[in-house]
Amino acid sequence: MSRVQPEKHTQLQIIKYLRLRGFAVGKIKTTGAKKGNVFLYDPYQFRGVADLMAFVPRLVFIEVKHGKNKLSTEQMIFQSLCKSALIPYLVVYSLEELIEKIDTFT
């Protein structure tokens, strides 16, 4: 039985919305692989990287959360790196919230 993943649904809504507006946006692979009952992280993957990367037209990283989910330690480190590099990093819980925040970059 598959697990409902509301964050993935919101990610898809955001991707479709930004593409309709003519922006380049894509999902960043942020997971490893499951082998049997063990989850293996890809040792080459940058842990904590945001879910989405968009050019609106400026580069923006977007982390999508659901409910009461908060950033992990790795995600907070990535957010801090973005801040140091003056790259916008958004944490959003819905398409509506993204729409409100994204207009500051367009």
Question: What would you say this structure looks like, in words?
Answer:
With 106 residues, this protein is α+β, with helices and mostly antiparallel strands. It has a single domain (6-102), classed as Trna Endonuclease, Chain: A, domain 1. The protein contains three helices and six strands; from the N terminus they run αβββββαβα. The chain has helices at 6-20, 73-84, 95-102, and strands at residues 24-27, 33-35, 38-40, 52-55, 59-64, 89-92. The strands form two sheets. Strands 1-4-5-6 form a four-stranded mixed β-sheet. It has a two-stranded antiparallel ribbon with strand order 2-3. Strand 2 (33-35) and strand 3 form a beta hairpin. The longest helix has 15 residues, at 6-20. It is globular and about 45 Å long. The mean pLDDT is 90.
Percent of residues in β-strands? 15-25%
Which residues form runs of ≥5 with pLDDT under 50?
Answer: none
CATH topology: Trna Endonuclease, Chain: A, domain 1
Number of helices: 3
Average of per-residue pLDDT values: 90
Largest sheet: 4 strands, mixed
Compressed to H and E, one letter per element, the order equals HEEEEEHEH
The N- and C-terminal alpha carbons lie at a distance of: 41 Å
Q: Reading side by side through the largest sheet, how are the strands ordered?
A: 1-4-5-6
Can you tell me the CATH architecture?
A: 3-Layer(aba) Sandwich
Task: Return the domain count.
Answer: 1
> What Rg do the Cα atoms give?
14 Å
Number of strands: 6
Helices and strands: which structural class? alpha+beta
